Amino acid sequence: MITSFRIRGFRGFDDFELSELRQINLLVGENNGGKTSILEAIHLLQSQGSPSAIRAAMYRRGEVYREGNEGERPRPHLDVCHLFHGHQIAGGAEFRLDSSGKLRDRTLEVSVLEPSDYENKDVYQIDLPPSLEGSNILFFGGSPEPVTAVLVLTSKDGLSVEQLDRFERSNTGEDPLPVFFVTTETQSAEFLARHWEGVALTEEEDLLIKALQVLEPRVERIALLGDRPFFRSSKSGVIVRLKGERTPVPLGSMGDGMWRMLTLVLATIRSQNGILLVDEIDTGLHHTTMSDMWRLVISTAQRLNVQVFATTHSLDCVNSLANVIAEEETPAETVTIQRVEKERSKAVAYSENEVVVAANRGTEMR
Question: What's the pTM?
């Protein structure tokens, strides 16, 4: 479990630290304060610099442009300057991510090396194809060893998505540690199908049904139409049986809240012995259901040894967490709220007791 986390030179952070981290960590603060960037940084560090983590983060933000030779179809490239503080990569830009924890410390350093740097054997030696000679490179270092040492940039300092695709095809292994990122977007049936096999016909499947029953108590069963490709790519690919109904009902017809609850619990299960990252955890959920959502997430995370980092803008979400802490007698050192502020180099940490007291007094923690 991560107990402290430091960011230097990544996105909007020059130097920033989170401390007193616990199993459940809720990040609060103003818009554009860097909460999502913190989740991205944790994802990148825990996946040991996985290019797929870089690609996912930049696609979510639309940091993509298209480029190609005359007569060719333009191909997508990632505008990697946005990963670095100040959106600049000239002059040896770099960022560093560090975490301390109960198991081991972790470090990831990503720097831009110019041709004169990597041609110097004292710095780094790499053989590039003739077409790429003279290009800048992203150099990865740290501990444990990153999954790749080098990614080659284009003449415009972009990162070819085609290059990332080749890397992922050659690297058939999974992420070094279980780390799961749930975005604000509604996940497709294809997403659920990829992770269903490890849950179906196990006791964890009951957790999924219980999660849906928070919003619709009549849910009795859930199933995926996995043998029909069209359904797997659409919301009609997940069906539920409701008590008193003769025919199954597509889950998509029951609202985005049902999809969000199912995604949260499935992602928590699939993050066993790892880390779950959730951007705006309350997305699609009515304030009356948030306490039940927190109970499910906390109990599942405790049972499966999952550390959760989530963000929110909702005071209802914060107050619901405070209510669960007070009512459920949550074990000490389980929950913290971390307030992220632009002008501070360190997040303000609230313990369980402080969260409850602040909520009871109506103190603004966001």
Answer: 0.89
